[in-house]
Please model this.
Amino acid sequence: MFPAWDERSLDVSWMTVWRVVESLVEADPATVRKIASEGVDLGDAVRRVFETLKRRRQATLFEEDGLTLEEVYSQLEAIAEAKGPGSRAKKEALLRSLLSRASPLEAWLIVNAIVGETRLGLSEGLLVDAIAEAYGLPRSEVERAVMVSGDPAAVIEAAATGGPAAVRSLRPQIFRPLRPMLAQTAEDVREALSELGGTAAFEYKLDGARVQIHVKGGDVRVFSRRLTEVTHSIPDVVQAVKEGLEADQAILEGEVIAEGADGRPMPFQVLMRRFRRVRVSPELLEAIPLRVYLFDLLVLGDEVLLDKPYSERRELLKRSIGGPLRIVPTIVTGDPREAEDFMERALAEGHEGLMAKNLRAPYTPGVRGKNWLKIKRAKTL
DNA sequence: ACTGTCTGCCCC
DNA sequence: ATTCTGC
DNA sequence: GCAGAATGGGCAGACAGT
Model:
């Protein structure tokens, strides 16, 4: 509903939507359900219900009909911002007043926006095309701008207010997370080596949580894979970054795992008892200690490193950290036997397998390409 | 205070 | 995260 | 081959209800 970096959420799902819809029409639940069952998704179901059944009269201060985009958006913001005792009822009341004013078609769009469906056939790829065409920009430039800003809306704003030059000058902002680069799978190290052109970086694949760490002027903020801020859940990791990073400004990436006193990784579920906690007690901090293993560097000082080859980013990463900070165990090799031995070691130490990465590849936010490959232990029954 | 239910662009 | 499907 | 949609298991937070 909101941009990925926006921490707000509606906390409304299909169940609440459904209660509201039932309360808005003059029919028994069974009839409503029957009509709704013909819809292809929840929004379509609501559209059909509103088209078919008589709506209850809704007492409202606003007599005028016709919703504007601004009204819908600010109403959704109000729903997101309602919290504390009675907030559930308030969210429901706000949604009811919104849907009571919506035409069937408008209700369809609003409901699908709320529950996270589009079904418009409008993927981000098409959105990029549309921005490029609307502002007369090359597709590649729009693509790049969406990637580094992580937010199509920011690109549109730049194009509309500053023109092509503003779009071209978009760069990552510290404390605004980028979408993480993603990996494809490979069966084994040999396949990975042939995909990556004979030589590659092999790294332990740790069974933890991906994090992106932003640092500026002594402040540290950490984001999860889905760009949720998790800074306050992992004060031990934040402290390690403050102690170990020798740069006033940076964006780093790594994997956070729970590590036992014996140095072996604790199960993923144990990590999850820490990772998304709002408050971490001293007892929990001690019982489940976290450690981050870094593997990438996207921004260092004033330099954006996204287009630099992985080998160079890794070299700069190595030179930028010290103290308690660690880099994920890595070897660079073209020898399959050496890589297989490394894989065996990773598994023996309790890890998930290996990542294989193209040393010449840039960092491509949000792209699941073949420059990063994950190799897991073959599944046995 | 305790338990139940719902929610999460949740984490994997 | 994995698996499936349609282009 | 790619991207998008659909799906699973498990967990903490937050509110509702008692």
